[in-house]
Every structure is written in structure tokens, then in C-alpha cells.
Amino acid sequence: MAANVNLGDNLSVGPLGFGGMALTPVYGEVDQEDALRTLHHAVDSGVSFIDTADIYGGGSNEELIAQLLKERRDEVQLATKFGLVGTPLEGYTDIRGDAAYIRQAVDRSLRRLGTDVIDLYYMHRRDLRVPIVETVEAMAELVRQGKVRHLGLSEVTAQELEEASAIHPIAAVQSEWSIWSRDVERNVVPAAAALGVGFVPYSPLGRGFLTGTVDASSLGEKDFRRRIPRFAPDAADANQAVVDTVQSVADELDATPAQVALAWLLAQGKRLGLPVVPIPGTRKRHRIDENLGALALALTTTQLDALARASDAVVGSRSADPNWVSEGRE
Fold it and tell me: Distances from the Cα of 23 to the Cαs of 19, 53, 59, 82, in angstroms?
């Protein structure tokens, strides 16, 4: 395993994290015992940065991770989030960024996780009714109380990040970023680099699409991806060209598409001057081993250029409501 990466605010985490949402029923049913074995395998393999949120599985994902923490808290850098009301599968009913809600949310998460401190606490989405400085002031109070060690923001714009950083150091921005989701490179990534904030890309494998293992036309009725525009039949057919390019580069390197997609992100971080720690999620233990192989993969300039050209041809938004993510508010 490669050395740890320093995000912002002196937060040191492993070079590849684990996204916990995959271990909830967003992409189909989940066996909880098998999910726990997957988490243990991740930590056994050196993946110490575990990311969850209070709305994943309606809180059940935090409860699942609590079973891991019971035995291995000192081996894990723990991230969770607040702000969304609802669940990914059933839909969201509200976004809350007010101080009263934050105080309630952190205590609920601490109880479910069975721990007395969260290493990285994110604002999951922006509540546009509340000035971001007020949200971050309430989050900073949690640091002073010892409930939280570091603060993070998800899907913020460059301006929102700058305003937040003036109130309290921000360790990380978490937003979707991958070969087929590059909108954050316009404003958010440069702002993070200038402010000394690390970046934690979620869905670095395009919710599985970039691996070439997802048939968008056969997604289950309850699959969360059915609501995302770029998974619609016509868009998915057009976006197959991106997958073909990723596969072509993988064939050249005797690697897998997932490894190429992750190696591309790591290379982008170096090129753009900021620490990047992707958090791919999976239910399958062998995928964790596969993903870790990306850390040793080096892409040539020609390969990086080919992947960049492919990303320019992506069809469809990454969110059903672009205003819900930074892309729509920039």
C-alpha cells in the first residue's frame, strides 16, 4: 500500500478510500453479513479511509460500519455526512444546514457509529436557505466540542468553498469527479488547490459505468442510477464510446478499466496540484484488490490525452437536478 495522503487541515488518510453507499440497497439488495466481510477485507488490505453518510440506508450504513469500528476503530479514518433528509433509494425530502439540525445529526451519527468522535464530518449538500458561513460556524462548534476532528464540504462551488474556508479550515471537498464527470475542474478544483484543501472524488468509476460491467438497459427497477440522465438509454449508448476508450487503454497496460479510471484521477490530481483520494465503493472483495492495483499504474501522456478526448463527448448530466450539485450553481 502506498503512503498516506495529506488532505487539508493536516488530515492524513490512505491513498484510496472506500465509499460505503455501495453497501446499501441503492444498486440492488445487500446481504449485511457479506457487506461486513467486505469492510473487514478493505481494512485488511490497507484501505483505512471509510466514507459513509447518515442517509445511506436510512442510517443502516452507519450501523453496519459501527460493527467494523467495534473491533478496528484505531485502524480507520472515519468520514460521515449530514444535511440530506430521506434516502438515495426513496428520494430526498429536504436539505438542512441550520445549526439546530447539525447538532441533532451529529449526535445521531455518533450513536449509530458507536464512536465518540468523527474524523471528517461533511456537509452533504448545500442548504441554500442558510448562509454557508452559518453552517460552517455550527460545524466548527462540533470541532471545539471534540465530536469532530476535521470538516468537509460536498458539492460546493468555488465561492462557497472560499467563504467556508474563511470561517474554519476545510480538510476536503467531496464531489463527483471521474473521466466522465469533469465539471469540477473548471472552478472547484482550482479553488481547493489554492486554499490547500484536499479532494475526495465520489463515484470515481462513474457508478460502475466506466468499468464496462454495467448494462444501463437492464438496471433493476429500484436501482438509483435509473434516475440519472446519462444512464438513460440514448445517453448510455452514446457514452459507451468513453468505456471503449478506457478499455483500450486498459488493454495496452494489461490492466482493468477500473484501474485505469482510478489512475487517471490520481494523475489529474498531480497535474492540477492538489491531493486526491478517490473513494470507490463495491460489494465484492476482489474489486477492492483490483482497485488498489491502480496505485501502481502509470498512464502515458498519449493515454491521458486519449482519455481526456473521450470525456469531452459524454452525453447527459451527472445529476437529475444540476442545481443539486456544484455544476448547476457555478
Answer: 8, 12, 12, 18
Beta bridge partner(s), residue 201: 175
CA–CA separation, 193 and 197 (whole Å): 6
Chain segment 125-153, per-residue pLDDT in tens: 999 999 999 999 999 999 999 999 999 99
CA distances from residue 121 to 53, 81, 143, 154, 279 in whole angstroms, order as listed: 9, 6, 9, 10, 15
Active-site residue identified among 27, 56, 122, 202: 56
Retrieve residue 175's grid coordinates: 464531489
249/252 Cα distance (integer angstroms): 5
Q: 308: Cβ–Cβ under 8 A, 6 or more apart, which residues?
A: none
The reply to whether 92 belongs to the active site is no
What gap in Å lies between CA 201 and CA 174, rounded to an integer? 6
